[in-house]
Amino acid sequence: MNQLTGTTSSFPERRRTDLSPAWTGPRVWILVWRKMGSVQSSRGGAGQPVWTRTLIGWHVVFWVLLGMTLALSFLGDLRTARQALFAGTVVVLGAAYQFIGLHAIRSRRALPSYAYRLVLIACLMVLIGIYPQSVFLMFIASAQIWLLCEDIREGIGLSLLLVLGVGTAQLWSAGWGWDAFWEILPWMLVSLVVSLLFGIWIEKVITQSQQRAELIEQLESARDELAEAHHSAGVMAERERMAREIHDTLAQGMTSIVMLAQAAAVELSRGGTDGAAARLAAIEDTARENLAEARALVAAFTPVALSEATLTEVLRRQAERFAAETGVDVQVSLDLPDDEVAALPQAQQVVLLRSAQEALANVRKHAAATQVLITLGLSDGRVWIEIRDDGTGFTPGSESGGFGLSAMRGRVEESGGTVEVESTPGRGTRVQVLIPAVQEDV
Hints:
Elements: H1 27-38, H2 55-75, H3 80-107, H4 110-130, H5 138-147, H6 152-174, H7 178-269, H8 273-299, H9 304-308, H10 311-326, E1 329-334, H11 338-343, H12 346-367, E2 371-379, E3 382-389, H13 403-414, E4 418-423, E5 429-436
Parallel strand pairs: 1-2
Antiparallel strand pairs: 2-3, 3-5, 4-5
Helix pairs in contact: 1-5, 1-7, 2-3, 3-4, 4-5, 4-6, 5-6, 6-7, 7-8, 7-12, 7-13, 10-12, 12-13
């Protein structure tokens, strides 16, 4: 009885294989295994597929199918010589997988990969030619061919070679007749088409997955670079902020100490001990305040003066000290109630205070003024502070590369505000700082 068609065959001593649609059905999940397994890890080494970490499963599938094939051959009516050849071929295939195939799977090297697949196809031709029922080994053979492929053309060529080899073996087993050829041909064509379609589809899925993995790796690299850039920018911003704080507090205090010390030296040279004592007392007060500011900088950036008094009180205290140190008449004017000033956020009060300190420092160093007016007000949703003097003035835009005004602008712009400077040589200077007014909830 012909096993392929169910009719009587003229080749009683050779068996034909039963090529049913079930031959191609399991190919779906086998190739899907490849899809899941062959995607490159974005963080793994080059050419190391993720599926090698689940190699035990592939061992089990291969050895189970090979063992089933050998066991079923003993249940058939093979002659002793054929049985021995069949068993020997199974051993050769198992050894090729163990010593060549696994190496090819792990290393992805071309030479062992091609060698193993050629041995695999040759062994399958012998096994199917001797015992056609072992055709189900094509399940794992087709999957391994695509697993070890580097591109689609290679997979197509080796899949075609596999189908032609298996078809030739089946035709030899059936006796080389035309009837057998026409009965085998349709299933071989179907098997080839299904294998190629799924193989090409899976290969494209793998390529897209690899591209996505590379894109993810690039995005992660860009994210790391961006995080590093943000960190560097944060460090630079913090350094700039520290520089402004030191310039607005410690540096100005040190300048006052130097000027007071020089004045005290002049008083002592003239024999005026009372005046020198007053200068020394002012030096001590300034040094103590600088020390407190230094400690405040270590703990936080809130000026120590604002932690002990309101902004209005601090401005008046600064004006009194400036007048005592320089002899300049300094007045403080408020265009808004004191309670509204106290309701401003601490950060805004710091900006206003530092701006006033910087403007007074510029008056001390450059203006040679006799009068200074500090005005604090609120209008159009913005709080502003204005420092006006009657000093020598300058031409706007021609100021040197000093740190003071640039530091003031940087601090104010961080708060969303603006700095306006108006000056005319011989007619004084006006510095106005405007920032959005946001009152703290009480």
